Amino acid sequence: MIFYLARRIFNYALLLFIATSLAYMLASFALDPANNWNREDPTLNWAAINANLVAYNISADLPVWSRYTTWLHSVLTGWDWGVTPKGESVNGLISTKIGVSLRLVFLGAFIGMTGGVALGAWTATRQYRLSDRVTSFLAMLVISTPAMVMAILLQVLAVQVNRSTGYQIFEFTGEGEGLAGRLQHLILPTLSMSLGGIASYSRYQRNLMLDTLGADYVRTARAKGLVKRKAVVRHALRTALIPMATYFAFALAGLFTGAAITERVYGWHGMGEYSVNSIAQYDINGVTAVVAFSGLCTLTGALLSDVFVAVVDPRVRVS
User: CATH number for the domain including 173?
Assistant: First the structure.
């Protein structure tokens, strides 16, 4: 088990290094930080501007490979991800935004995963009944709704609930202050993030459960006298969770796309908003840091899924 996890960690670390390096190269070729000043005033002193960009190691006049090696040395030796075209520290900007996104993404992912698995398993045991058809229709409706539309619809519903009750139950702008305020502001963004996960995971889990419910080992367990609920949980659900764990790990990356939109709609200042601003400001170091962060979260999810599969599936532990 230990050697299995060590091998997976090494592979994921190598993948993250390659992905981050490619992101830096692509951003260097596609983004020119000098465009920030070109949009403001073309008559500015370009010699002084370029001197600053050279000092920041982001000037287009420097060879890409030279910029990359300098940047990589700073990251590996001092965990310094560089500066923006305006001279701001990328480390400082990200440190104020990572917690915001992690709070939103991982809470939404957890609710979406657990809710989707439970709903999918429940509907699979009621195949073709009214409850199965209704939940299937609602799930497909949610899946086909864009993230921005879903976030705005929840805001509209929240306004109506607040007006009808006469209380400010839901807050949907900003992050709030204090524990109670943060929790109140967290409800709608988390719900917006988790609804899509519940819908998509429930459909996938339902299909997996339908395959396992008719398996020989489930029918054998029932024939030996095991009640239906225990047979479903111990045998059908446990087997269906193995591919589900892998699916969840690599679906985690898609949550960051939804997070960027959700943060915009609800006025949260997290990594999603920062990624959009970094591209708009031709920030090479910022874009690379965002890719590294999203890649780290995705591979962390993949590692957790590997651990889960190893716990659930004895064949992995033996191998």
Answer: 1.10.3720.10
φ/ψ bin of 269: left (φ > 0), alpha (ψ from -120 to 50), beta (otherwise): beta
CA-to-CA dists, residue 173 to 111, 117, 262, angstroms: 22, 30, 11
pTM here is 0.80
The range of the structural domain enclosing residue 123 comes to 90-317
Q: Which two tokens stand for residue 138?
A: 């609602």
Instruction: List pLDDT tens digits, range 114-164.
Output: 999 999 999 998 888 999 999 999 999 999 998 889 988 998 998 888 888
Nearest to 243 by CA among 132, 120, 140: 120
Distance of alpha carbon 189 from alpha carbon 168, whole angstroms: 16
Number of domains in the chain: 1
CA distance linking residue 127 with residue 204, whole number of Å? 14
Confirm whether 117 is domain-assigned: yes
How far is it, in rounded angstroms, from Cα 98 to Cα 267?
A: 15
Do residues 154 and 191 lie in contact, with contact meaning Cβ atoms separated by under 8 Å? yes
- C-alpha span between 203 and 312 (Å, rounded): 21
